[in-house]
Write a structure and sequence with these properties.
This protein is α/β, with parallel strands linked by helices. Helix content is 31%, strand content 24%. A hairpin with a 5-residue loop joins strand 6 and strand 7.
């Protein structure tokens, strides 16, 4: 009668390496997809002396965007990108092929990039107090009601997000 074969474990270094690979795989799966871990590139055009633009850029960076800023003003870029002046604000950005005009919240930009609507982009016309970049201590907690608009390819818009 033949003896039953018994399990012989792999040598300790090979077993340790396999466990390390398994642990690394589990950690990667738990931390989400790789694209979510890399900053999203955002290019912004603004006036060099605009403090609220600087604050909006800081908001975007804190929310995972890698910002390249151009201190050349934004009117010519806004026009070149096809966004009407009626949607204008103090800075214009480009991210994922979309225009982002003004003090749009990072969460709304993420939603835009996730949903990928047929649109030119998002706009917060003017400079509403309480929007990202217009929410510093000098405003003493004041928050104006405003809308983030989804600007469609034909130049019309609809409300994308209301802010009360």
């Amino acid at each position: 009668m033949k003896p039953m074969s018994t399990f012989v474990p792999a040598p300790a270094p090979a077993r340790r390496r396999a466990l390390q690979w398994a642990a690394a795989g589990l950690a990667a799966a738990a931390s989400g997809p790789l694209w979510a871990q890399r900053p999203t590139a955002l290019e912004v055009w603004k006036d060099a002396s605009c403090g609220c633009c600087h604050d909006w850029i800081a908001h975007m960076q804190q929310n995972g965007f890698a910002v390249t800023a151009h201190d050349t003003g934004n009117n010519a870029v806004r026009a070149r990108l096809g966004l009407a002046a009626k949607y204008g604000s103090c800075h214009t950005a480009l991210v994922g092929g979309y225009v982002v005009e003004g003090h749009v919240a990072a969460a709304e930009v993420r939603r835009l990039l996730r949903e990928k609507p047929q649109a030119l982009g998002l706009a917060v016309p003017g400079m509403p107090v309480g929007s990202p970049g217009m929410d510093g201590p000098e405003y003493k907690g004041r928050r104006d009601k405003y809308d983030t608009l989804l600007v469609l390819p034909d130049g019309t818009s609809r409300v994308y997000q209301r802010h009360a």
